[in-house]
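TODO from last week: model Acyl-CoA synthetase (AMP-forming)/AMP-acid ligase II.
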Amino acid sequence: MFLPVDRLAAAPSAGWRAPEPPTAGDDALVIYTSGSTGRPKGVRLSHGNLHFMSATLAQHLSLTERDHALLILPLFHVNAICVSLLAPLVVGGRLSITGRFSVSRFFADVEQLAPTYFSAVPTIYALLVSRGAPSSAAVASLRFAICGAAPISRELLDRVESAFGIPIIEGYGLTEGTCVSACNPLDGVRKPGTVGPALRGEVVRIVDPAGDPVPQGERGEVVIAGPNVMQGYLRRPEATAETVIDGWLHTGDVGILDEDGYLSIVDRIKDMIIRGGENLYPKEIESALATHTAVLECAVVGAPDEVYGEVPVAYVVAYPGTAPTGDELATHLVERLARIKRPAAIHVVEQLPRNAVGKIDKRALRAAVTL
C-alpha cells in the first residue's frame, strides 16, 4: 500500500495528546539471544542501558564526530546496534550499511566508503585473511577494528593485524549485559589472549559455584554488575531470577582475572567436556590446534563414550591451499596437550555450521558429532 505525501497529516487531530517521554528505566529494545546453549530468550534492554553503553563505548574507543562505522553484522544483534550504530551516532559520527556481508565485496566497500572502523566476529576475520593481504589503499581509512561475540585465537589475531596494519581490539560481553563488559583499550596496554579490563562503570568478578569471589588468577564464573545489566527476560521471570542474582549478571562463562584486571575467557560452562571425571575446556584444545599454520578455524565438542562418558572431538577448517590430515594435527598436539585433553578424533571439513550472526554453532556440531 502506498500513501501519497499530500494525504499525510500536517497537524495533530483534535484531542490528540503526545505520549509521555520514556524514562531511563523503560524498555527500549527486546533482543533475542542466539539460543546457542538453549531456547532463545528475549532480553529487555532499557533506554538507560543503551545510553550508558553507547556513551561508554564512544569514550573507550575515543570516537568523535569524524568517525565512521561500517556495519557488517546483522542489526538484530546487540553488537551491531551498540558498537556500530549507537556509539558513533551519540558523538555525531556516521554509519554506512552495505547490506549482507560479502567477503568478495568487503575491501571494495572499505576503499569506496572510507570508514574509520568496523566490528566483526572471528569467522569474518578468518574469511577475510584467507584471501590474502589487502592493498594499502583498501584499508587506508581504518584506524582500528573490533572483534567480539566469540573468542579469536592469537594466531588469527596476529595474521589479521599483520594483513590489515591496524589494531584489532578484543572485547567481551553478552546481550544480557547490553553488549560489552570488558574490552582491550585502543590507547593503552592491549593483552592478546585477553578481552581486556571492565569498561568504566562496570564491575567484573570471578566467583565460585556458591557465588563467592575466587582469588586472583583462579578460574570461576564471570559475573557482571553495572548500568549495563538487562531489565530481565521477556515473560521469563524464573530465568531472570536464575541469571541476575543480587544485581549480578551470571554469564555462564568461565574466566580468569589477572593482576591488572584483564579478563581471559576460558570457555562456556555448558561447553565443558567431562572425560572420566576430568573437566576439559574445548577452548584450550582449540587454542592448541590453532597454533598449526594450516588451521584457519576449529571447534571442539564432546561426543558420548561408553568408557569415559564424553571425549573431545575436533572439527578443523584449513587455510586455502593447505591440506592437513587428522593424523598430522593429532601429532601436532602431542607436545601441546596432556593425553587426556587430546581429541579422540579430528575431522578436517570444508566449513563449520554457523548461526545467523556468524558464530560457530556448537549445538549443531554436537548433534552430528562422530568419532
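Done. The two ends are 55 Å apart (CA to CA).
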